[in-house]
UniProtKB/TrEMBL annotation:
It comes from the Bacteria. It holds the Pfam family Aminotran_1_2. This is Aminotransferase. Its cofactor is pyridoxal 5'-phosphate. Residues 54-371 form the Aminotransferase class I/classII large domain. It comes from Streptomyces nigrescens. Its EC number is 2.6.1.-. Keywords: Aminotransferase, Pyridoxal phosphate, Transferase. Belongs to the class-I pyridoxal-phosphate-dependent aminotransferase family. Residues 1-50 are annotated as: Disordered. InterPro entries: Aminotransferase_I/II_large (IPR004839), NHTrfase_class1_PyrdxlP-BS (IPR004838), PyrdxlP-dep_Trfase (IPR015424), PyrdxlP-dep_Trfase_major (IPR015421), PyrdxlP-dep_Trfase_small (IPR015422). One of its GO terms (molecular function) is transaminase activity.
Amino acid sequence: MNVPAPTDAVRLRGSGPAAPAAAPSGPSPAPADEPDLRHHGDAEVRGDGGGLTDLAVNVRAGTPPAWLKAHLAASLDSLAAYPDGRAARRAVAVRHGLPVERVLLTSGAAEAFVLLARTVRARRPVVVHPQFTEPEAALRDAGHDVERVVLSERDGFRLDPDAVPEDADLVVVGNPTNPTSVLHPAAALARLARPGRTLVVDEAFMDAVPGERESLAGRTDLPGLVVLRSLTKTWGLAGLRIGYVLAGPGTVADLERAQPLWPVSSPALAAAEACSAPAALAEAAAAAEEIARDRAHLLVRLGEFGEIRVAGPAAGPFVLLRLPGAAGVREGLRARGFAVRRGDTFPGLGPDWLRLAVRDRATTDRFVTALAGVLR
């Protein structure tokens, strides 16, 4: 499938069989010439990429902090017992001002996408792109025929709620969106909620936004709202796998029934409880402010290159940029010790896009020197 020209938001149908109202069966094949929906940034730093400076993965550098490592180590004494998630679930509920029956702990946010794909009975599921590709991959694997709403570079990849089909009964959107780093207004997202529709908002990076502005995590007034959160990014817990779902009690109960027994390990539960405590929230808030300052520095330095265009305004711990010959630039950066994320695996983008994680100013300055060497 050809990538649409970067004009207005467009709608694209997948080529798989339509999903029935009941639980779908059999994977829905992606259209021919599709981006690799299963490619993720960690592929850039595996194997011979392990020694590179990592700008491809959006996990905050220098994490997990020492206090969290100590807390996780202490939790190992409980490994003989089966995991008990009640305390962690209460902590997450308190953190968002919600009753516990609106919280479900998951083995990373990625598990939540699979659970939703298997349990939500959608006739017309829509994924807003460019965004994290796992939601669409999970829906296709569960047999759904996925329709795309592709946002426009010309509009700064901003969401127009009117671009989403009125009869879409499952809508998935990221906020702030990976890879564009665009933060959609909460009011625009709220316009997508309605009876008979499941609205999934992926807020995996929201705790990296100062004040978590535009979050819907505490809302209980929007019908069908499902908010996904991850502790991976801010706390450096990609290898531990811990995230959670915030949704109506009925949706939470449905998802929980689809989970295997004891889906979240005891150390991961310990992390969820600890990272929901007031001191941890204060630390995360300070980290978000620091990320904003470091991102501003990165944007200034990228502005030195006339051939580079940055999507935005960026609000996440990463930026998306467009430059000619990005694939060759990426390889040149690898030769100079830096791993960056290719953009052509995201629907709606193409070979001229790269995503960069925000790092400290010294790392950014080293990166800019390497980039200048590649470009000039």
